[in-house]
Amino acid sequence: MKTSGHRGTAGPRAISVAVLAVLLVSLGAVAVTPAQAAPAAWSGRYTMVTYASQKGGTSPAARLPESDISAVFTMTTSCAGGRCVATAIGPASSNPTVPNPLSYSWDGQQWKIAYDWVWQCPIGAAGQSQWSPAQSFTYYTPQPDGSLRGMWSTDIASGACRGNVVMPVAAFPA
């Protein structure tokens, strides 16, 4: 019985067709723009919670005890040119360097924001503070129950609180 030398292997043409099929499927998957992939607009009143009691990270500030922080914000979403932005209107931070309002961009899976500000690091027992440059990144992922959950991460560039701090965040319809 004579056998072919290609027994059990795919020929070059079959491999090329398979690779082309995978590429076409992949291209189709990334052709969806963020606006097209957006869930229902993030609009209405939401109680936004920062779980500061659960914070972690490399900064000494991550080890300081802190209570959770919450406030009610009115969210409004607008989409134009394939980009959706949700703006949070509500109480300003006690730190005047935090942008207000905050505007979150939709990336196809989550609402996210990045911003520069100045971290207020408590030093000493007399309520003194050291101010250090910081960059924060926050994301909120929509959940099936209508809430959003995510993480807030801050890199503190210098000073006594140098390092990073991470905290879970959530937003619940109010």
CATH architecture annotation name: Beta Barrel
Structural domain count:
1
Total helical elements? 2
Average residue-wise pLDDT: 83
Q: What's the oligomerization state?
A: single chain
What is the number of E strands?
8
Question: Topology as H/E string?
Answer: HHEEEEEEEE
Strand content: over 45%
Helix content: 10-25%
Topology diagram in text:
Elements: H1 12-30, H2 34-37, E1 44-50, E2 69-80, E3 83-89, E4 102-106, E5 111-123, E6 128-142, E7 148-156, E8 163-173
Report on this structure.
The protein is mainly β. The chain has one domain: Lipocalin (Beta Barrel). Helix content is 13%, strand content 45%. It is built from 2 helices and 8 strands. The chain has helices spanning 12-30, 34-37; strands spanning 44-50, 69-80, 83-89, 102-106, 111-123, 128-142, 148-156, 163-173. It has an 8-stranded antiparallel barrel. Strand 4 (102-106) and strand 5 (111-123) form a beta hairpin. The termini are far apart.
